[in-house]
């Protein structure tokens, strides 16, 4: 009786994987109003993500997010000549409904980015699916298991962040939002750690688990992104832009800007504005 049931069971039905891809040097910005349910994975490099009309979120390193019908997604790098290692797995089928109902495939446009602790393991699963898709034969049942393992890794990393940061999650989210909105302000991270009632070492760890980078790196990246935005959208002097973005020394600002964008602020403005 058990053998008969197993023989007639089509456990792996209900999931199709029509599109896959990996680009080690993916340039520019991608605009996406999806018709598939997809895993997007930024293995390396800095990028931004904007869901609908919400504010841009910036991240770097191994970070995953999900795209799905009913939302508009804009993501990529706004650095001239910049690139990143990006992969995607696009799926459809009835099985997706089970993932959504269970919470395995989550749709939270306000908090979509999930730092992945073991980026190499995650990339290996994606490249397996990409390799399967390039073969002339149909996707094997194992492809469903690999895709579900990727979703599970995203879920586990999300839960790890929530549990490790515990009651501090709302504070970290507010702090990151305030820094992104006005990175020119000075931030006393020692005072932030004291507000959370933790040591500075512990604060750095839970902030990195939440944002994917340390507090200092997050602040520096936010300041550089603001400076780049001001260079694109205003005629302010380099000195004024440096000050508004959080630097008192315009030469130190120029040096850090060049380190990130591989180009001087002056040349960046010329190439963007023509």
Short description:
The protein has 274 residues and is an alpha+beta fold.
Spans of at least 5 consecutive residues whose pLDDT stays below 50 are 1-9
CATH class membership of the largest domain: Mainly Beta
Our measurement of the CA-to-CA distance between the termini, rounded to an integer number of angstroms, reads: 74 Å
How many separate domains make up the residues?
Answer: 2
Strand content: 15-25%
- The main sheet orders its strands as 1-8-3-6-9
Got a strand count? 9
Please, what is the average pLDDT?
Answer: 87
Q: Supply the CATH architecture of the largest domain.
A: Sandwich
CATH homolog superfamily of the largest domain? Regulatory protein AraC
The major sheet is characterized as: 5 strands, antiparallel
- Tally of helical runs: 11
Secondary structure layout plus pairing:
Blueprint: H1 2-8, E1 16-27, E2 29-32, E3 37-44, E4 46-51, E5 57-60, E6 63-67, E7 73-76, E8 83-92, H2 95-102, E9 114-115, H3 119-133, H4 141-165, H5 169-181, H6 189-196, H7 200-211, H8 215-233, H9 238-244, H10 250-261, H11 265-273
Antiparallel strand pairs: 1-8, 2-7, 3-6, 3-8, 4-5, 4-7, 6-9
